[in-house]
Amino acid sequence: MKTLFARWSGACAALLLCSPGWSPAFAADSDPAEHHILWSLQGKTNKVYLLGSVHMLQPSEQLPAAIDAAYADAESLLMEIDMDDLDPAQMQRDVSELAMQPANQTLRQQLGPEAYQKLSSKVEPLGVDPAALDPFKPWFAAITLVQVQMMKIGFDAESGVEKRLTRRAAEDHKPIRGLETAREQLEIMARLPDKQQREFLLYSVDDAGRMTSELDQLLSAWRRGDAKGMAKLLQEGFDEYPDLYRPLTVERNRKWVPQIEELLDDKDDYLVVVGALHLVGTDSVIDLLERKGYKVEQL
User: Fold this and answer.
1) In degrees rounded to 5, what are phi and psi of residue 172?
2) What domain range includes position 194?
3) How many CB atoms lie within 10 A of CB 247?
4) pLDDT tens figures, 149-193
5) Between vectors from CA 41 to CA 86 and to CA 224, what angle results, nearest 5°?
6) pTM above 0.90, yes or no
7) Which helix (H) or strand (E) covers residue 51, if one does?
8) Which residues pair with 47 in a beta bridge?
C-alpha cells in the first residue's frame, strides 16, 4: 500500500502523487529523461496527450519540457476533476457529510486504546492534536495525517502538476473539464467498509517512518519516465490490499477510458492529466486503451 498514501494525500482536498526533501530538494535530473510519464494518442483529426501527474510537489521542482510542449499543443485540458471550477463551500459540505463520525461516536472509540495511542504518538510530533481527529472517520484521519507529513517535508499542493497547469490554463483561457467530481472521489473512500478504513489509517501510521524513502522511489521513477518501475510499486500495494486498490485505480480507469475515447477526432487537441499511477501497469488507462486497439506512444 506504499504509494497509495502518497496518491491519496491530496485527494480529500480536491485532489491535490509525490518525494521528500533530500538535497538538493527536487532539483531536476541533470540528464534529460529518455521518456516521460506522458503518452500521445493520435486520432484522425487531433491528438490526445495523457500525462501522469504528481499532485503535490515542492516549489523548486522543474517540470520536464515535454509537459510544457504538450500543454502548448493542447487547446483544452481534461483532469480528474474540474480544477478551475471547484466550489470550496460545496467541498466543505461534502466533507462534513462523508468524513464525520456519527453522533456520539469518536475516532478514539472506533480505534480502541492501543491503536489510538499509536496514532497519537505519530501525530503529536507533527503538531497535530489527536483530539482534533476525533470527529472524523478513519479514512479522513489517514489522509489528513499523510498530507500533514508531506507538508512537513516540503510538499505543496499549489506546486503540484494540476495546480500549475490550472493557473496557466486560466491565463491562456484554455478550458478545463473533469472526468469525475470531487464528491465522487470522496465517496470512493467513504464507501470503504469500517475494517478497511481502520486498516488504511493504521497502515499510514505504521508507514510514517518510511514515507520519505518510498516517495523518493516513486518520484525518481516519475522523473525518469520509468513506467515499469512505477507499475511495480503500484502492484506491490495492489497485491497486499486488492479490495482497497481496485476502487481507487482500476474501477476509475475503466470509467475514464470511454470519456477519453470521445475526445478523439475532435477539432481540438487535448491534454488529459491524471495521477501517474493511473497510467502504468495492468488495467491502467494506457493498458485499457491498447487492449481496445489504440496505438499509444510514450513520449
Assistant:
1) -95, 0
2) 2-20+33-275
3) 15
4) 888 889 988 999 999 999 999 999 999 999 999 999 999 989 999
5) 80
6) no
7) strand 47-53
8) 42
